[in-house]
Write a structure and sequence with these properties.
Blueprint (H helix, E strand, L loop, with lengths): L5 H12 L13 H11 L4 E3 L2 E2 L2 E2 H11 L5 E5 L3 H11 L3 E4 L4 H12 L7 H15 L12 H11 L4 H8 L3 H15 L4 H14 L2
Parallel strand pairs: 1-4, 4-5
Antiparallel strand pairs: 2-3
Length: about 210
């Protein structure tokens, strides 16, 4: 289990350890510790949060898939699945479940991913099928898909009305780095200025609800 909030770790451990056929072999809070623990413990499944003290859980997914291509990964996150689940699947995860879901749903997700199947909520499955249908119909993909994973995180936070200084604090990055990401986002989305960027980000976030 890779989770940087002790309370969440304890809650997950309680749910899983009460289940006769499941147990936790290790709990860590950072990407370096996660990679070391996977090498040492050789788990059957890794549960990963996306926010790891400023480090991106998506980058951890990519690292795991490079080193252990067949290791099943379940993302357990507070981030909206409509925004992040598809990116996580592309990065190597086999499932995505939001932290607001019930313990029963979590156990269902764990078992499904352990069986080498893919777990998504019914709503997210419908959302992905709708996207595939639109692409086949010639409507193409969203320009937001052009953004890197970190740029996407910044874009979403802009859309949630966070200022540059707040985004820097949330992602544990410098304001200069966030400003650079903002410039790259404007270039990729062909936006003229900061006002256009904010408007586009807000509209996109609202469209995902």
């Amino acid at each position: 289990m890779v989770e940087d909030h002790p309370i969440v770790r304890e809650g997950l451990a309680r749910v899983i350890e009460q289940t006769p056929d499941l147990s936790i072999c290790g709990q860590v809070e950072t990407i370096p510790k996660a990679l070391e623990a996977i090498e040492r413990l050789k788990p059957d499944l890794v549960i990963v949060d996306l926010s790891l003290g400023g480090q991106s859980g998506i980058e951890l997914l990519k690292d795991i898939k490079v080193r252990w291509a067949d290791l099943p990964i379940l993302v357990h996150s507070m981030y909206d699945e409509t925004m992040y689940a598809e990116r996580c699947l592309r990065a190597g995860a086999r499932g995505y479940i939001m932290k607001q879901e019930s313990p029963q749903k979590l156990l269902q997700a764990i078992r499904k991913v352990l069986q080498k199947d893919v777990y998504l909520s019914e709503a997210m499955t419908s959302h992905l099928l709708h996207r595939i249908s639109e692409t086949k119909a010639g409507k193409g993909t969203s320009p937001v898909d052009l953004l890197s994973d970190r740029e996407f995180e910044v874009f979403e936070l802009i859309g949630r009305a966070h200022r540059t200084s707040e985004i820097a604090a949330l992602l544990h990055l410098s304001q200069k780095t966030i400003q650079t990401h903002r410039e790259h986002i404007k270039e990729k989305l062909q936006l003229r200025d900061a006002v256009s960027l904010v408007r586009c980000a807000v509209q996109w976030v609202e469209s995902q609800k």
